[in-house]
Design a protein that fits this description.
The chain is an alpha/beta fold. The chain is built from 10 helices and 10 strands. It has a 6-stranded mixed sheet with strand order 6-7-8-3-9-10, sandwiched between helices.
Length: 266
C-alpha cells in the first residue's frame, strides 16, 4: 500500500527565476502504486535537459505530465508561468501548442508516406496553403538531413530514418519545447550517434528547449546541458554531465557502470 505523501508545498516558494518548465511536488499513482513521488525539476529556456532512469522509474509518465497528457494526483507543471494541471481548457490548449513531441520509434502513420506524416499537423492546426505546407515539410526534412525521402512509404525507412522523420514532424509547427521519448531505443551504436548529432544540431539551430528521457548513457552525455536521475519516482540528483559523472550516490555510480545494486538483484 502506498505511503501517505507529505503536505503539499507552495509552488511560489520553489520556482527559480523564469524557468521554461517547472515541475513542483509532482505525485502520480496508478491503482495505488506510486509512480511519481514528489518530483521537482526546473528547466531553463533553451536548455537540453536529459532525464535518465531505468525501466519502471517513471520517465515516460513524467514526460506525459509535461505536455498534459496525464493529470497529476498532486503537484504542479508550470510552463512559462502557467500551471498546466490547473489551467482552463483554452489555456491548456495554448500551452500544449508550445510542445513538439517525438515518440518512441517515431510513431509514424503507416498509412501515410513521409511527406503526409509531416504535413499532418500543419493541415490540422494551421491555415497554410498546400504550397506553404510543401515548403515547410521540405524545411523540416532538410533539418534532419532527409531531404529526398518525402515520397517514400514509412515501411521503406530504416529505424534511424523513422526517428528522424518523427523529429521532422515534431518541429513542423515550430514549437518552443521539444520532447524526445527514448530516441535511441533499439538502434545500433552508429545510428544512435547519428540521432544524437541531429538532436545536437537542432538544439544549436532552433530556438527551443529540449527534454529527453533515455536510459542510454552515451547519448545522455552527448546531448545534455544537464542530466537528472530519476529513481523510484524521485529525482536523485541534477547536474551538468561532467559533474554528474562524479556524483557519489551509489545508485548513480552503479547506473554509470552498468552494475545494479545488490538490493535490485536480490
Amino acid at each position: 500500500m502506498a505511503n501517505n505523501p507529505p503536505p503539499p508545498r507552495d509552488p511560489a516558494s520553489t520556482i527559480p527565476t523564469l524557468p521554461k518548465i517547472a515541475v513542483i511536488d509532482l505525485w502520480k499513482a496508478f491503482r495505488g502504486k506510486e509512480v511519481l513521488r514528489g518530483v521537482d525539476l526546473a528547466i531553463a529556456p533553451g536548455e537540453s535537459f536529459v532525464i535518465l532512469g531505468g525501466s519502471g522509474a517513471g520517465k515516460s509518465v513524467l514526460l506525459k505530465h509535461l505536455i498534459g497528457l496525464i493529470q497529476p494526483d498532486r503537484g504542479h507543471v508550470i510552463v512559462d508561468g502557467e500551471d498546466l494541471p490547473c489551467a482552463e481548457p483554452a489555456v491548456c490548449l495554448q500551452i500544449r501548442r508550445k510542445f513538439g513531441m517525438s515518440f518512441q520509434e517515431g510513431a509514424l502513420f503507416d498509412s501515410m508516406n513521409v511527406f503526409e506524416n509531416i504535413a499532418f499537423p500543419l493541415r490540422r492546426h494551421t491555415r497554410k496553403s498546400e504550397a506553404e505546407i510543401s515548403a515547410r515539410v521540405q524545411e523540416c526534412l532538410e533539418a534532419v538531413h532527409l531531404h529526398d525521402v518525402g515520397r517514400k512509404a514509412t515501411s521503406e525507412l530504416s529505424g534511424g530514418m523513422r526517428r528522424r522523420v518523427g523529429f521532422a514532424r515534431a518541429i513542423a509547427l515550430q514549437p518552443e519545447i521539444l520532447l524526445f521519448d527514448e530516441p535511441n531505443t533499439g538502434l545500433d551504436p552508429l545510428t544512435s550517434a547519428v540521432i544524437d548529432d541531429v538532436i545536437i544540431e537542432m538544439r544549436e539551430r532552433l530556438p527551443v528547449t529540449m527534454v529527453t528521457i533515455t536510459h542510454d548513457m552515451r547519448s545522455a552525455f552527448r546531448i545534455a546541458d544537464r542530466i537528472a536521475m530519476l529513481r523510484d519516482g524521485k529525482i536523485l540528483a541534477v547536474a551538468p554531465p561532467e559533474e554528474f559523472r562524479q556524483l557519489p550516490d551509489p545508485y548513480i555510480q552503479g547506473f554509470l557502470a552498468g552494475e545494479p545494486l545488490e538490493e535490485e538483484v536480490a
